[in-house]
Specification:
The chain folds into 2 domains: 113 residues, Aminopeptidase, CATH 3.40.630.30; 141 residues, Aminopeptidase, CATH 3.40.630. By secondary structure, it is of the alpha+beta class. The protein starts with a strand and ends in a 23-residue tail after the last helix. The protein is built from 11 helices and 13 strands. Strands 1, 2, 3, 4, 5, 6, 7, 8, 9, 10, 11, 12 and 13 form a 13-stranded mixed sheet that branches.
Length: 318
């Protein structure tokens, strides 16, 4: 008989083994302790913060849905947000309705606790069944070393250095954390969990300096050679930062992402990119429309169900 419940602390090891197995069978090999260390690594700062809803038959886990509560800050206003992840059903027990029940449990919990919205990443039609719609814009720019050589050949980046930040760099982390919190749109990232968050999906936090002064930061995700969150104090430094970042890597082609408030960055990337595209950022389930549209006042027109010209920076890493 299938039972459904909120996971208990002693379920931790079983949940990690379960989601590793399911995602490794469905996609590439996964190790959630390394892929999402903020929640699943030993001593993870956020394991107790995440709520796991599980389906089980006796001691055997058949399904899992995780909900991580976080705040999203938009121009001084706040949306209480839940990120849905580790959505998984045992491949031998699909079709029993476990996922439908677990997703409803997560939504019921969020509504009861006053969440404004839920977010997740995943296949569109799969999650439309649960009330999620594609929203947000992700701008991707494909940049190669050849592009940089031809377009940025005369840009001086000799005084720009790129430095991988570690837990020993406390003062530098404080400075980067403050820069992140000053963004007009950003997700909650407490200082004690900041570096662990930046390591999501095997990411590396890179400080960008001019001489000894921090001018910005980015995250390099080696799984797909993507630079996400290229954040600079002054976006007129974008060209020099791009030249320095790409010059430090052995690979020849990279992807950069940018958000609408980074206009100078978008302009600089557009000038040198081999190609670019705009896609949806996340799947979103709006639980409190009144609060949501107060923060994101764009209204849908008569031909669209929901607005889409929104930014959810950091959604891919929480």
């Amino acid at each position: 008989m299938t039972e459904y419940a909120v996971a208990k602390p002693n379920d931790r090891a079983g949940i990690i083994d379960f989601v590793n197995m399911v995602f490794s069978m469905d996609h590439r090999p996964h190790d959630f302790k390394k892929d999402l260390p903020k929640v699943y690594a030993d001593g993870a700062p956020w394991y107790d913060r995440a709520i796991h809803f599980v389906a089980r038959d006796g001691e055997t886990i058949l399904g899992n849905v995780a909900l991580l509560p976080l705040d999203l800050y938009v121009n001084g206003k706040t949306l209480k947000t839940g990120f849905i992840g580790a959505v998984s059903t045992h491949p031998y027990h699909r079709g029993i309705g476990a996922m439908k029940t677990l997703m409803k449990m997560a939504e019921d919990y969020a509504r009861t606790h006053g969440f404004d919205m839920l977010e997740l990443g995943g296949q569109r039609q799969r999650y439309e069944y649960y009330g999620y719609k594609q929203m947000g814009l992700r701008r991707k720019f494909e940049v190669s070393k050849t592009n940089v050589r031809h377009v940025l050949g005369n840009v001086n980046a000799d005084d720009i250095s790129v430095y991988e930040v570690t837990e020993n760099d406390s003062a530098l982390l404080n400075e980067i954390h403050a820069l992140h919190n000053a963004l007009p749109i950003h997700v909650e990232r407490p200082r004690e969990a900041f570096l662990s968050i930046m390591h999501s999906w095997r990411g590396s936090l890179l400080a960008i300096k001019r001489d000894d002064t921090l001018i910005g930061y980015t995250v390099f995700q080696g799984l797909d050679d993507t630079y996400s969150e290229l954040i600079l104090r002054d976006y007129s430094d974008t060209s020099a930062a791009l030249k320095a970042l790409i010059g430090k890597q052995e690979h020849k082609e990279f992807t950069f992402t940018a958000f609408s408030f980074q206009k100078d960055s978008i302009k600089a990337l557009g000038k040198i990119a081999e190609g670019w595209n705009i896609s949806f950022e996340m799947m979103v389930n709006i639980l409190n429309p009144e609060n949501f549209y107060e923060v994101y006042p764009q209204k849908s027109d008569d031909n669209a169900e929901l607005p889409c010209a929104l930014d959810f920076p950091g959604a891919d890493m929480f």
